[in-house]
Amino acid sequence: MKSILITGATGFIGQHLINELSKKERDLNLISRGGANNSISVDLTCNSETNKIISSCNVGIVVHLASSVRAIRSSIDVDKEISMAINVISALKPPCRFIYLSTADEYASSPNLISENANLDPANLYAKAKFRTRKALEAEAQKIGIELIVLRPFLVYGLYQPAHMFIPQLLKSINDNEVFVYSSRRKVRDFIHVSDIVKAIRMLIDYKENISGTYNIGTGVETSLSKAIKMVENKTGKIINIERDARLGIDNPDIIVANSKKIETKIGWRPEVSLQKGLSELIKGNCSF
Question: Which domains does the chain have, with CATH numbers?
Answer without folding.
Answer: 3-284 (3.40.50.720)
